[in-house]
């Protein structure tokens, strides 16, 4: 059982930056894909970003391209989501997720492809 613990959420102003962290209980190298999703009140959980093992590819939702980056430090078993130029629409609970399956690119945004999830960290963006 892999445990994922997110941290770094908080209250920021529009235009600010924030870095989320996801600490995994086991070697992140064994997790083929690490991803970030978010869920705003009344909305479905949506894909934000994903990174494949060994930094072999990063993928982003169109809504965050150019503003967010994802990285992983296998030595620390941690994945990061750097969020810049935050907008009100970015406010949500952010979840870290992982899978050991070799998910094809077209399916990275599907929640069903991930088998472990963290509890989430709240990001609030004020005016």
- Low-pLDDT stretches: none
The shape, in one word, is globular
Tally of helical runs:
0
* Main sheet summary: 7 strands, mixed
Describe this structure in words.
The chain has 127 residues and is mainly β. It contains no helices and eleven strands. The strands form two sheets. Strands 2, 4, 5, 6, 9, 10 and 11 form a seven-stranded mixed sheet that branches. Strands 1-3-8-7 form a four-stranded antiparallel sheet, with no helix packed on it. The model has no long low-confidence stretch (mean pLDDT 92).
Q: Helix and strand layout, with pairings?
A:
Elements: E1 4-7, E2 10-13, E3 18-24, E4 33-39, E5 46-52, E6 58-60, E7 68-73, E8 78-83, E9 92-99, E10 116-117, E11 121-126
Parallel strand pairs: 2-11
Antiparallel strand pairs: 1-3, 3-8, 4-5, 4-9, 5-6, 7-8, 9-10, 9-11
List key phrases describing it.
single chain, about 130 residues, mainly beta, four-stranded antiparallel beta sheet
């Amino acid at each position: 059982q892999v445990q994922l613990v997110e941290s770094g959420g908080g209250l920021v102003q529009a235009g600010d930056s924030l870095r989320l962290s996801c600490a995994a209980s086991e070697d992140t190298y064994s997790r083929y894909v690490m991803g970030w999703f978010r869920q705003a009140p009344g909305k479905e959980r949506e894909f934000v970003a994903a990174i494949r093992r060994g930094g072999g590819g990063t993928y982003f939702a169109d809504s965050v391209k150019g503003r967010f980056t994802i990285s992983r430090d296998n030595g620390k078993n941690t994945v990061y989501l750097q969020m810049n130029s935050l907008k009100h629409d970015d406010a949500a609970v952010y979840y870290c997720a992982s899978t050991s399956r070799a998910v094809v690119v077209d399916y990275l945004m599907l929640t069903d492809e991930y088998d472990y999830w963290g509890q989430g960290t709240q990001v609030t963006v004020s005016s």
